[in-house]
Amino acid sequence: MKRIAQTIGLRPERRTAYLELHSAVWPGVEAALHRAQIRNYSIFLHGDVLFAYFEYHGDDFEADMAALEADPETQDWWKLTDPCQEPLPDRGDSRQWTELPEIWHLSPSLDDQ
Fold first, then answer.
1. What HEC string does the chain produce?
2. What is the pTM of this model?
3. Which one of 69, 71, 85, 104 has the fewest CB atoms closer than 10 angstroms to its CB?
């Protein structure tokens, strides 16, 4: 399992639209995320900054992301959400969102195993 954290700006003038979209994410979009082996996906908001966390449970991240990007309903969803977002200038070659390196993770305690 791979843990992924990402961040991106939220355009203030599109904030309401973005929040309304995410109050009822399309079932087809959620199904595409599941097919791409994405689990435990959350998006948090702090001011005009979005922070996302998800877990990837597949074996070929690039192939699963390519399948997700090719999904027609997901493409329609992104046509609505992408204009609400402001990519960060340091995102480099990453997709719309900037991936963040993990610097620490609490391992399960012996009580959890």
1. CEEEEEEEEECHHHHHHHHHHHCCCCHHHHHHHHHCCEEEEEEEEECCEEEEEEEECCCCHHHHHHHHHHCHHHHHHHHHHHHHEECCCCCCCCCCCEEECCCCCCCCCHHHC
2. 0.90
3. 104
Angle at 66 between CA 64 and CA 70, to 5 degrees: 115
Bridge partners, 99 (sequence order): 6
**Is the four-CA dihedral 29, 70, 68, 94 of positive or negative sign?**
negative
d(CA 37, CA 55): 8
CA atoms within 13 A on the CB side of 97: 17
> Largest Cα–Cα distance of the chain, in whole Å?
47
Number of Cβ atoms within 10 Å of the Cβ of 90: 7
Query: What would the pLDDT profile of 1-53 be if each residue is shown by its tens digit?
Result: 999 999 999 999 999 999 999 999 999 999 999 999 999 999 999 999 999 99
